[in-house]
Write a structure and sequence with these properties.
This protein has ten helices and 14 strands. By secondary structure, the protein is an alpha/beta fold. It folds into two domains: 141 residues, Rossmann fold (3-Layer(aba) Sandwich), CATH 3.40.50; 162 residues, L-2-Hydroxyisocaproate Dehydrogenase, Chain A, domain 2 (Alpha-Beta Complex). Helix 4 runs parallel beside helix 5. 47% of the residues are buried. The structure holds nicotinamide-adenine-dinucleotide (NAD) and (2S)-2-hydroxybutanedioic acid.
């Protein structure tokens, strides 16, 4: 299996490292626009192989997409991260052009690849990659839900003093402050979370989750990479190993949840064909209202993309 990761910065290099040391792919190609940057990161990861004992071949290239030919999966992380005071949506003007040109190059050399978008604003960059690629929706998806759910699970594990392995949860909607964690679908070793934690504490964790990306931007001056890179690698693993994992993934909705044409995080089954099934939960009235509000927020940014020169 050959996997290309575009953008050898914080998230891209972390994703490539996880793909290599967990031997998720036989070959990982890192691509960056900065001269020598991807080559250096790939060489560093390769030099770690005798220490961490893996044989995944990692190589890096500066903008030479011919070396990415026939990739099975491509992860797009190229683009600016936000700085303190910015929203993810503020990145659209720079990142739309980057994601569009990267997708064109990817499709030229790997027309069969499954594409995982990571660049922000996530839902709209997934839209951008999907319309550029002209591929079926099942093969162009965005990574955010695994990360957001992981934050929610980690906060709960800390509060309850239990292993994060035992927290299961679903989170839906856009990758922004309107995301929708779902306490009704959250369990701790099979026990409904509401039986384990007071309502005010749970509400505080839901709010912290929604602002989880911003919390890290404030602390570090740039955005997160360990959890995002690992989350993207987990999606790659589900695809290349045909694991049929159930994850929240951003995809174009075509009637599910009564929504058509908007790119939103929903639970799906992920396997060798990409998104093999969109799972439709029986949301109650309050949950559906939150999902619709999230849809509205994503729609507004999709409209911005539609009116940008990059799409003319
Ligand atoms: N979806 C998520 O949950 C999530 C999580 C974290 C970060 N992100 C987003 O991922 C993106 C990358 O974040 P980061 O922290 O790795 O940033 P970074 O600045 O460390 O890395 C980005 C890399 O992209 C490269 N790049 C820029 N234009 C390119 C092009 N045309 N072709 C190839 N490479 C190009 C840059 O040279 C840089 O090395 C940001 O947009 C960030 O907001 C998303
Ligand atoms: O917060 C960001 O800007 C990056 C990413 O979307 C995240 O949630 O960590």
């Amino acid at each position: 299996m050959k996997v290309t990761v575009v953008g050898a910065g914080n998230v891209g290099a972390t994703c490539a490292d996880v793909l290599a040391y967990r031997e998720i792919a036989n070959e990982v190609v890192l691509v960056d626009i900065k001269e020598g940057f991807a080559e250096g990161k790939a060489l560093d990861i390769w030099q770690k192989s005798p220490i961490n004992l893996y044989d995944t071949r990692t190589t890096g290239v500066t903008n030479d997409y011919s070396k990415t030919a026939n990739s099975d999966v491509v992860v797009i992380t190229s683009g600016l991260p936000r700085k303190p005071g910015m929203t993810r949506d503020d990145l659209i003007s720079t990142n739309a052009g980057i994601v569009k040109s990267v997708t064109e190059n990817i499709v030229k050399y790997s027309p069969e690849a499954i594409i995982i978008v990571v660049s922000n604003p996530l839902d709209v960059m997934t839209y951008c990659a999907h319309i550029t690629s002209k591929m079926p929706r099942t093969k162009v998806m965005g990574m955010a839900g695994i990360l957001d759910t992981a934050r929610y699970r980690a906060f709960l594990a800390e509060e309850l003093n239990v292993s994060p392995k035992d927290i299961q949860a679903v989170l839906m909607g856009g990758h922004g402050d309107t995301m929708v964690p779902l306490p009704r679908y959250t369990t701790v070793g099979g026990i409904p979370v509401t039986e384990m934690i007071a309502e005010d504490k749970l509400n505080a964790i839901v709010e912290r989750t929604k602002n989880g990306g911003g919390e890290l931007v404030k602390l570090m001056g740039t955005s997160a990479w360990y959890a995002p890179g690992s989350a993207a690698a987990q999606m790659v693993e589900a695809i290349v190993r045909d694991q049929k994992r159930v994850f929240p993934v951003c995809i174009k909705l075509e009637g599910e949840y009564g929504i058509t044409g908007t790119y939103l995080g929903v639970p799906v089954v992920l396997g060798k064909n990409g998104v093999e099934k969109v799972i439709e939960l029986q949301l109650n009235e309050d949950e559906m209202a939150l999902l619709k509000a999230s849809e509205k927020a994503v729609r507004e940014v999709m409209d911005v993309l539609d009116n940008m020169p990059v799409n003319a």
